[in-house]
Design brief:
The chain has 18 helices and no strands. The protein is mainly α. It starts with 6 loop residues before the first helix and ends in a 5-residue tail after the last helix.
């Protein structure tokens, strides 16, 4: 699968794999860890919201700056921050310090191995390291690698349950921050070896010159990106309503612990990784837009059915299938929004895409936590389903018009 992929892109994928393991462990266990520390549902939701808000602000700054100063320095800085955050969380469970570490490290949010708020720089660098003709393959493969790493991390999330009789209290949970710390060290090695230079992107530049639409037929870029960002915000709010606190929902709804949730989520990530690879075949048949729409519509139907499942195994089957469909379309969506602009503005496009999801996503966990505290465990899914249904309607209209005006490659 990696045949023909340039060295820089391979190193970025290696960093993603290392980063994703810690993310997968914490997406299962971090909320459960806070619950075990006797944090209330509202306090957990507020922490996730604060973390997402800080991430959104960082995204606003990083994407455009990476177009001018390069991505490598930003990504190295991100991993340094991860090292500091993981070290703090590994050494103490004091609420003030744990909150600081969680906000800095984005603990529990999950990003499929992406560099959190620095993901726009990562995506821009990745797009510049390969030709546009390779985007579909490379972005889907990159997504699959991250999802498989998340699956490995979700499997490790069973450790607190296994070690409960060996380590006192919540100490077993804190071992997972060691996974994050080690992953960041490996990331620094991969990123340090990757080169960001014109030599790496010569073929991409040549391809860009032949495939980008002439300026006179392209709409004003800010109008296009703002329209896209507004539509994407609906998706972001829907994701924020159910995504960050899914493991916590399974615990509240069915009373299951880290081992059961982690194992099931690992299967979900593996399924999503394979679906991302299958997405390459679907692209050839339905195109990028058609592939995203078909996968997300099926995922939407499963999302609406999920909260009504009477048994844990049934809910998990629905969750696994939905995760495979939704996350398996990530590569197609990344290729689509990066295709809206020319090479010099990809960091900006990636920023708009990330920020338009993250900003509304910040309020989702707090709203959901309020419903959880009121023992209303179905309502967040219905609201999220309505938001994502409207998003898919406008998503189709937006890209159909973009294609009509020559706005996408």
């Amino acid at each position: 699968m990696l045949k023909g992929v340039p060295r820089t892109a391979r190193l970025l994928m290696g960093a993603r794999a290392a980063r994703s393991v810690g993310q997968g462990a914490l997406v299962v266990d971090f909320a459960l860890y806070l619950h075990a520390l006797h944090w209330s549902a509202l306090a957990i939701g507020l922490l996730y919201s604060a973390s997402l808000l800080v991430g959104a602000v960082a995204t606003l700054l990083v994407g455009p700056l990476s177009d001018h100063f390069g991505a490598k320095g930003f990504l190295l800085g991100y991993e340094a921050v991860q090292l500091i955050a993981a070290s703090i969380a590994l050494s103490t469970a004091q609420p003030v310090w744990l909150t600081l570490a969680a906000v800095l490290g984005g603990f529990g949010r999950g990003a499929n191995g992406g560099a959190g708020p620095f993901a726009p720089a990562e995506q821009s660098w990745m797009s510049r390291s390969v030709t546009r003709g390779q985007w579909g393959k490379v972005f889907h493969l990159n997504t699959s690698i991250g999802l498989l790493g998340m699956a490995a991390g979700a499997t490790l999330a069973a450790l607190p349950g296994i070690l409960a009789g060996v380590l006192p209290g919540t100490e077993a949970y804190r071992l997972l921050f060691l996974v994050v710390l080690l992953g960041s060290l490996v990331c620094l090695l991969f990123l340090g070896a990757a080169k960001e230079s014109t030599a790496d992107t010569a073929s991409a530049v040549q391809s860009e010159q032949t495939q980008t639409a002439p300026p006179e037929v392209r709409k004003p870029i800010w109008r296009v990106l703002l329209t896209f960002g507004t539509i994407n915000a609906l998706n972001g709010l829907g994701i924020g309503m159910v995504g960050p606190l899914m493991a916590y929902w399974f615990h509240l709804r069915f009373g299951v612990g880290p081992a059961a949730i982690g194992g099931a989520m690992a299967l979900a990530f593996v399924s999503a990784a394979f679906m991302s690879l299958i997405g390459l075949r679907l692209i050839r048949r339905f195109g990028l837009v058609g592939t995203v729409l078909r996968m997300r519509l099926l995922g939407l139907a499963l999302l609406l059915a999920l909260p009504f499942a009477p048994f844990f195994w049934m809910a998990m089957l629905l969750f696994i299938a939905r995760a495979a469909l939704n996350q398996g379309s990530i590569g197609s969506r990344q290729a689509l929004f990066l295709g809206l602009v020319d090479k010099s503005q990809r960091g900006l496009a990636a920023t708009v895409n990330s920020l338009s999801v993250q900003a509304p996503r910040t309020i989702g966990p707090t709203i959901t936590a309020l419903f959880f505290q009121a023992e209303m465990l179905v309502t967040p899914f219905l609201i999220a389903g309505a938001l994502q249904g409207v998003y898919l309607y406008f998503f189709q209209r937006f890209f159909n018009r973009a294609e009509d005006h020559g706005q996408t490659a």
